[in-house]
Automatic annotation (TrEMBL):
Keywords from the UniProt entry: Carboxypeptidase, Cell shape, Cell wall biogenesis/degradation, Hydrolase, Membrane, Peptidoglycan synthesis, Protease, Signal, Transmembrane, Transmembrane helix
Pfam families: Peptidase_S11 (PF00768), SPOR (PF05036)
The keyword Signal is annotated on this UniProt entry: yes
Domain of life: Bacteria
Protein name: D-alanyl-D-alanine carboxypeptidase
GO biological process: one example: peptidoglycan biosynthetic process
Residues bound to substrate: K250
Species name: Stappia sediminis
GO molecular function, one term: serine-type D-Ala-D-Ala carboxypeptidase activity
Domain SPOR: 457-541
């Protein structure tokens, strides 16, 4: 009979390459390792804007939700009922109402929408059509989906309801009828208005409803490029073509909102609508959306569609019924009671849809903007070189940077013009200091040049040209206005744009021109600027 021999390893000997730890020391070591891992995860989460409790408190604007399109089940939710600014997500509802008009037969895809002086005066992003001109409904749809054109959104509103204010009331009423209980619209574009609020949950409801109700027209949201009057406009939604299954739908940005995105994904017999609001940058917003898609799409149902999405049905009949409906109730701000990521649940929807009628015209309400500083102080210096492409706002891809960057100085005795006071106006306008030759799309009848601040709509992705980074937004705007005048035809039809960037604990404002259709066009503009003694470089972002 064989005896079982018991082998025991000898304890390690101190001093021979092995450290002996006591039980308490081992426990302490495991705790410290765990702490380091948590800190690393939190650091990555904060950088991307991921919805952990700690990162959410660091980024107070963030909220998000993921909903299973087939079942209506909430797969992920963080501050989904906290009031947020929709920015250009507003245009999803603008198109929803326009699709109702198409379905009711009051408009066709080839119907012409007139451009008024009011709609033409909207700040960028815009097509820049002249007052008195017109645009086809189909082109208007594509202009909103790709260029996110504010002038065209206003034109849709005026042609459908007589005024943008009346159209906004219809938008709010439609929102109620599809279950968006915490949303109020005040304009058709998403341009800044402190009374225009929504929630991530409401945007998810809208994202589901528009594709359920209008499958015939929803496909427009998958448009990558829109060509109009010889110019090509790319879609702001960079997830199209980059993430498998993404078929829309809309981005949005104003300074008050941060970077927003509503996305629809259909893949492997699963369907979700996801919303990210309040991203610090477009890149971090997109990264967070990709993370949500990757984590929660596999949890979506592969079964049949069992959702009960409510859609508001438009009545066929005359286009206008004055006072046929009372003003929709305006919701108060809901207190933020969310303490962290929420568990799964179901998106509530009312039991029955009712019809939406058009409203009578009404005067639109203007927004007063703060008065700009009268002169440029000595501290308002221009910072070039590294701050062009660094800081918290990072370009997606950096190309064609000039090898040598000279210092850009303000010429003594020739200060840059400061922005004029714009009380009771929705635009940021810069007073013209000298006569310059520019395109009709860039100059208003009163001789002022409209400059898109970072509080306007999000810029079109594509080729951009940057000339400097300034300590104040006023100075950046002044530089852009002056540079555009000097460059002449090379910048005709191109939008000036300012963008904040954090660097070394301070905020700087990039001065950029956006909307170039090709690399050669951007480089050509840069050459023209260099001839005018401006340093610049071109990037694709």
């Amino acid at each position: 009979m064989r005896r079982r021999v018991r082998h025991e390893s000898k304890p390690p000997i101190p001093g021979q390459g092995t450290i002996v730890l006591s039980k308490s020391a081992k426990r302490t070591g495991r705790f410290l390792k765990s702490l380091v891992r948590c800190a690393a995860v939190a650091a990555v989460a904060v950088g991307l804007g991921i919805a952990t409790p700690h990162s959410a408190s660091a980024n107070s604007k963030y909220s998000g939700i993921v909903v299973d399109t087939k079942t209506g089940k909430t797969l992920y939710s963080y501050k989904a009922d906290t009031p947020r600014y929709p920015a250009s997500l507003t245009k999803i509802m603008t198109l929803y109402v326009l699709f109702e008009e198409l379905e009711a037969g009051r408009f066709g895809l080839n119907s012409q929408l007139k451009i008024t002086k009011t709609s033409a005066a909207k700040p960028p992003s815009k097509l820049g059509l002249k007052p008195g001109s017109s645009i086809r409904v189909k082109d208007a749809i594509l202009a909103l989906v790709t260029k996110s054109a504010n002038d065209i959104a206003a034109a849709i509103a005026e042609n459908v309801s007589g005024s943008e204010a009346a159209f906004a009331r219809r938008m709010t009423a439609t929102a109620r009828r599809i279950g968006m209980k915490d949303t109020t619209f005040r304009n058709a574009s998403g341009l800044p208005d402190s009374r225009q609020k929504t929630t991530a949950r409401d945007m998810a409801i809208l994202g589901r409803a528009i594709q359920e109700r209008f499958p015939k027209y929803y496909g427009y949201f998958d448009t990558r490029v829109f060509t109009y009057n010889g110019r090509r406009y790319g879609n702001h939604n960079r997830l199209l073509g980059a993430v498998r299954g993404v078929d829309g739908i809309k981005t949005g940005y104003i300074r008050a909102s941060g970077f927003n995105l509503v996305t629809s994904v259909k893949r492997d017999n699963r369907e979700i609508v996801a919303v990210v609001m309040g991203g610090r940058t477009g890149a971090s917003r997109n990264a967070q959306m990709k993370k949500l898609i990757g984590q929660y799409l596999p949890k979506a149902s592969t079964g049949p569609d069992r959702s009960d999405v409510l859609v508001a049905s438009a009545q066929r009949g005359p286009a206008f019924h004055a006072a046929s409906l009372e003003d929709a109730p305006i919701p108060g701000l809901k207190p933020d009671l969310d303490g962290g990521p929420l568990v799964t649940g179901t998106v509530p929807v009312p039991a029955k849809a009712t019809a939406v009628a058009a409203y009578a015209p009404e005067r639109r309400t203007a927004i007063a903007l703060p008065e700009a500083k009268a002169e440029v102080s000595a501290r308002d210096r221009i910072i070039n070189s590294p701050l062009f492409g660094h800081g918290n706002v990072k370009p997606a891809r950096k190309v064609a940077q000039v090898k040598k960057v000279k210092t850009f100085a303000i010429v003594p005795g020739r200060p840059f013009p400061s922005p004029a006071k714009t009380a009771e106006s929705e635009q940021v306008e810069v007073a013209s200091a000298e006569p310059v030759a520019m395109g009709d799309a860039d100059i208003d009848e009163d001789g002022t040049v409209t400059v898109a601040s970072n509080n306007s709509a999000d810029p079109e992705p594509g080729w951009q040209v940057q000339i400097a980074a300034a300590e104040t937004e006023d100075l950046a705007i002044s530089m852009l206005k002056r540079a555009k005048g000097k460059a002449g035809r090379a910048l005709r039809g191109i939008d000036p744009y300012t963008e904040p960037v954090e660097s070394a604990g301070s905020t700087l404002y990039r001065a950029r021109f956006v909307g170039f259709t090709s690399k050669s066009e951007a480089w050509g503009a840069c050459k023209a600027l260099k001839r005018a003694k401006y340093d610049c470089y071109a990037i694709y972002e």
